[in-house]
């Protein structure tokens, strides 16, 4: 290894119990390591068409409302990422918060963060979504395991159901 710099670990953090457990486990596995605490947020949620109970499309949202919702989500993501970085620092990691806009999906966004940072690994918590719901909703962990060229650590939440 010589004088190669230590590669950071990307830790997916959304403020949930599962992401807290993953962050704690990452601190145990990678003590003192630089860490990117990545919170991914999705812009444009206010633009999603709203359907009434009969299936007809509602009125499109006001552009100011869309901008305000995006601003609120961005600020919330920054807050969550900052809280995750503080927790990581308290556990001995050299943590940097990153609130990142999701352009495709959470898995692809985390892959892009890891690639840009030349991360040594990605750590993600498992929310315990299984079966049909997992296939319909998708699984960030599954996507990372299938497409990531670097090590992926999936930390099962203590209360997650066994698959």
Description of the structure:
This protein has 5 helices and 5 strands. The chain is of the alpha/beta class. The chain has one domain (9-156): HUPs (Rossmann fold), CATH 3.40.50.620. The protein has a 5-stranded parallel β-sheet with strand order 3-2-1-4-5, sandwiched between helices. Helix 3 crosses helix 5 (140-147). The model is unreliable at 133-137 (pLDDT under 50).
How would the blueprint of this fold be written?
Elements (H helix, E strand, L loop, with lengths): L8 E4 L4 H13 L4 E8 L21 H28 L3 E8 L4 H12 L3 E6 L4 H7 L2 H8 L4 E5 L7
Parallel strand pairs: 1-2, 1-4, 2-3, 4-5
Give unreliable regions as ranges: 133-137
Radius of gyration from the CA trace? 17 Å
- Content-based structural category: alpha/beta
Order of strands across the main sheet: 3-2-1-4-5
CATH class: Alpha Beta
Overall mean confidence score, pLDDT:
83
Question: Helical percent range?
Answer: 40-55%
How many angstroms does the end-to-end distance come to? 38 Å
Total tally of structural domains: 1
Number of strands: 5
**Share in β-strands:** 15-25%
Enumerate how many helices there are, as a single number: 5
């Amino acid at each position: 290894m010589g004088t190669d710099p230590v590669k950071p670990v990307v830790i997916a953090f959304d403020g949930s119990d599962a992401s807290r457990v993953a962050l704690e486990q990452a601190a145990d596995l990678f003590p003192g390591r630089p860490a990117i605490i990545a919170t991914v947020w999705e812009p444009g949620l206010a633009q999603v068409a709203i359907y009434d109970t009969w299936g007809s499309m509602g009125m499109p949202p006001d552009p100011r409302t869309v901008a305000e919702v995006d601003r609120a989500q961005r600020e919330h993501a920054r807050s969550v990422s900052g809280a995750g970085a503080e927790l990581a620092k308290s556990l001995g990691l050299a943590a940097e918060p990153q609130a990142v806009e999701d352009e495709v999906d959470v898995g692809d966004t985390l892959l892009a963060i890891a690639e840009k940072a030349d991360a040594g690994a990605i750590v993600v918590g498992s929310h315990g979504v299984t079966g049909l719901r997992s296939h319909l909703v998708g699984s960030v962990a599954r996507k990372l395991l299938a497409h990531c060229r670097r090590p992926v650590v999936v930390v099962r939440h203590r209360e997650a159901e066994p698959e």
